[in-house]
TrEMBL record:
One of its GO terms (cellular component) is cytoplasm. It is found in: Cytoplasm. Coiled coil: none annotated. Keywords: ATP-binding, Cytoplasm, Magnesium, Metal-binding, Nucleotide-binding, tRNA processing. Belongs to the TsaE family. It holds the Pfam family Acetyltransf_1. GO terms for molecular function: acyltransferase activity, transferring groups other than amino-acyl groups; ATP binding; metal ion binding. SUPFAM superfamilies: Acyl-CoA N-acyltransferases (Nat), P-loop containing nucleoside triphosphate hydrolases. This is tRNA threonylcarbamoyladenosine biosynthesis protein TsaE. It comes from Nocardioides terrae. Residues 12-155 form the N-acetyltransferase domain. Required for the formation of a threonylcarbamoyl group on adenosine at position 37 (t(6)A37) in tRNAs that read codons beginning with adenine. Is involved in the transfer of the threonylcarbamoyl moiety of threonylcarbamoyl-AMP (TC-AMP) to the N6 group of A37, together with TsaD and TsaB. TsaE seems to play an indirect role in the t(6)A biosynthesis pathway, possibly in regulating the core enzymatic function of TsaD. Its main location: cytoplasm.
Length: 330
C-alpha cells in the first residue's frame, strides 16, 4: 500500500507507492516505453502486466511522480544485496525534459537510505538515456550487450553548477565544513573548473595569496590570515608515482604541516588511499555534451564522495544552499 512519504520538488511531487498502485505504474510504463524507438530485443517492460508490476512493488515498493496531481513518472525499487535497482523507470513523453526524472532520482536516493548504492540498466541503443544517468552521477560498472549497468554510490553528493561564479561559491561554502588535516582529492578534465573550485576554498578558509593552478610548481602553500588551517594545493600529476605519496609530499619540504592544513590534491585518483583514511573525493565533469550546449551555457556537475568517518556530521545543506543538487549524502 502507499506510504505517506512524499517529496515536493518544485512543481513535481514524488510519493512512495506499493502494489495497490500497480495500474498507475503500468499505465506510465506502457506509455513511456511504447514511445521509444523499436529495439531488438524489445524492452521487457512492454511485457509487464498489472500482476507482474504488483509483484515487483510488493518487495520494496516504488515511486510515482505527479505534476498538477497527474501521475507522469514511475519506477520500481528492487533491492539486491547492498544495492537498489531502479527498474521500469518511466516518464510520460509529454512530461519529459521538465525535471520529472531528476526529481525521481533525488527521491530514490532518499528512499534507498541504508543501502550502499543505486543501480540502473540502460540500453546501448539509447545513448541519450545513458547520458542522463551519467549526469545523475551514475557510472558504468558492467556491460552485457545490449545492456549497460550503471551505479551511483548513495554517499555521493551531486551538485549542478551552472556558472563559474557558482563553482567558486560552492568551494567557499564547502570550506566552512573543513578543518585542519582534511584531504580533498580533486579530479576533472582540463578546464573543468578545478582551480576555480579551489579558489573558492581559499576564500572560504581565509588564506593569503592568489590560488592558481599548481602545474608548474607541484605544490603551493597558502597560509591562513584568520588563524585557521593553511591551504596546501598540490598537482599530483607531477608527483613521482611512488608507493608512498605522503612521503613524496613531505620531501617537497613544504612550509606547512599537512596535519595542520587543508590539502587539495588535483589529479589525485589512485594516490588518495596512501594519503589519508578519510578524504573527500571530488569529481568535476561537464554536465552537457557539445551538441547540448545552448548559447554560452556550459554547466558543470560536481560529485562529492565522502570517504571515512570524518564526514559523518557534515552539514551538506549549508554547502549547496541555493544550488541545484540531486540527492543528499548517506
Amino acid at each position: 500500500m502507499s506510504t505517506p512519504l512524499t517529496w515536493d520538488l518544485g512543481l513535481v511531487t514524488v510519493r512512495r507507492v506499493g502494489p495497490e498502485e500497480a495500474p498507475t505504474v503500468l499505465d506510465i510504463v506502457q506509455e513511456a516505453f511504447g514511445a521509444r524507438p523499436p529495439l531488438d530485443p524489445p524492452a521487457a517492460a512492454l511485457q509487464e502486466t498489472e500482476e507482474t508490476i504488483a509483484t515487483r512493488l510488493s518487495s520494496y515498493g516504488g515511486l510515482v511522480a505527479s505534476v498538477d496531481d497527474r501521475p507522469v513518472g514511475a519506477l520500481v525499487m528492487d533491492p539486491v544485496g547492498h544495492t537498489v535497482y531502479l527498474r521500469r523507470f518511466a516518464v510520460r513523453p509529454e512530461a519529459q525534459q521538465h525535471g520529472v526524472a531528476h526529481a525521481m532520482v533525488a527521491a530514490a536516493v532518499e528512499a534507498a537510505d541504508g543501502f550502499a548504492d543505486l543501480t540502473v540498466i540502460a540500453r546501448e541503443e539509447l545513448p541519450h538515456n545513458v547520458r542522463f544517468w551519467e549526469k545523475q552521477g551514475f557510472h558504468e560498472v558492467a556491460r552485457h550487450s545490449p545492456d549497460i549497468e550503471l551505479r551511483r554510490p548513495l554517499r555521493t553528493h551531486v551538485v549542478e553548477v551552472p556558472q563559474p561564479d557558482e563553482m567558486r561559491e560552492l568551494g567557499e561554502r564547502l570550506a566552512t565544513q573543513l578543518r585542519a588535516g582534511d584531504l580533498l582529492v580533486l579530479t576533472g578534465e582540463l578546464g573543468a573548473g578545478k582551480t576555480t573550485f579551489t579558489q573558492g576554498l581559499g576564500t572560504g578558509l581565509g588564506v593569503r595569496g592568489a590560488v592558481t593552478s599548481p602545474t608548474f610548481v607541484i605544490a603551493r602553500v597558502h597560509p591562513s590570515e584568520v588563524g585557521g588551517p593553511a591551504l596546501v594545493h598540490v598537482d599530483a600529476y607531477r608527483l613521482g608515482g611512488g608507493s608512498d605519496p605522503r612521503a613524496e609530499l613531505d620531501d617537497l619540504d613544504l612550509d606547512a604541516d599537512l596535519d595542520a592544513a587543508v590539502t587539495v590534491v588535483e589529479w589525485g585518483e589512485g594516490l588518495a588511499e596512501g594519503l589519508a583514511e578519510s578524504r573527500l573525493e571530488i569529481r568535476i565533469v561537464r554536465a552537457l555534451t557539445v551538441d547540448e550546449l545552448i548559447d554560452d551555457r556550459d554547466p558543470r556537475r560536481v560529485e562529492i564522495t565522502p570517504v571515512g568517518p570524518r564526514w559523518h556530521d557534515v552539514d551538506w545543506s549549508a554547502v549547496d544552499a541555493d544550488l541545484h543538487h540531486e540527492g543528499a549524502t548517506h
